[in-house]
Amino acid sequence: MKKIFLFIIVFLNLGLARADKINDLYVEIMPEELRLNQPAETYKSFKVHLLDTQKKFPPFKDILLQNIAPFFGTKAVVGKITYVNIFPKTYKYDIVYENGEFVLKVRIHLKESTASDIFYFTEMVKQAEQQWNNARIGMDFSYRFQFDIEPEVERSHYSVNILDSTRGPYDTNWSRNWNSHSIAHEIGHMMGIGDEYQTLTSKSDCLPTSIMCHSAGNLMKHHYYFILRRLLF
Asked: 54-96 pLDDT, tens per residue?
């Protein structure tokens, strides 16, 4: 009985320690003004990204070049996010080290696409790439994002249908009426960033300033953290 009691105490202490670390991370990567003025929305925009099969969430300050294990060639990153708060959905992308910087690459194949589709989505994907690169947060190492329309399905990370109108999901169907901002959001999913709003109802109970919450939102520090942390493992 005593051993069981001790086990429970240790288990509870470990849970509290993890909760403290997550709270410290929340304070570290979410802006103080938002935490004070929009606490519920700010925490919602943070916590959804914890629903990831890659469960290591180091302090932001630990994402340093000295802590990144050197690698050659291509590092494939694969995991699952929790889509619509229920379904596990795969994310995958590559990281390569080129010319002194880490390059995070996503390649998308368009199924049965027209020449007009290829032209349009090539432009939109490059504009989405620019959005992700323009909003980068400063680190002690160089990194950038590269998103491409890939003609060969075998070389792609994702192969998607092109429809006149659709809500997705990101890895299956893309819409001809999506703009570059929408595609920047969808590629966020492809790199393991979840929806911050309630996907089934479209209720926005998150930060409207966040691109993963609202179509008019922007990329924020926490989006980069949840991607860049994977450089450490």
From this structure: 999 999 999 999 999 988 899 999 999 988 777 899 999 999 9
157 and 106 Cβ atoms separated by less than 8 Å: yes
CB 71 within 8 A of CB 97: yes
Query: For the chain, what is the largest distance between any 2 Cα atoms, rounded to a whole number of angstroms?
Result: 72
Q: Which amino acid is at 177?
A: N
Confidence of residue 3 (pLDDT cuts 50, 70, 90): very low
- Rounded Cα gap, residues 79 and 92, in angstroms: 7
Element (H, E) at 109: strand 101-111
Indicate the burial class of 184 (C-beta count within 10 angstroms; 0-12, 13-18, 19 or more). Answer: buried
Cα(105)–Cα(93) distance, integer angstroms: 6
Residues 171 and 162: beta-carbon distance below 8 Å: no
Nearest 5°: the CA angle 122, 125, 131 is 145
pLDDT, tens only, 158-197: 999 999 888 878 988 999 999 999 999 999 999 999 999 8
Helix (H) / strand (E) element for 77: namely strand 74-83
- pLDDT tens per residue, range 134-145: 999 999 999 999
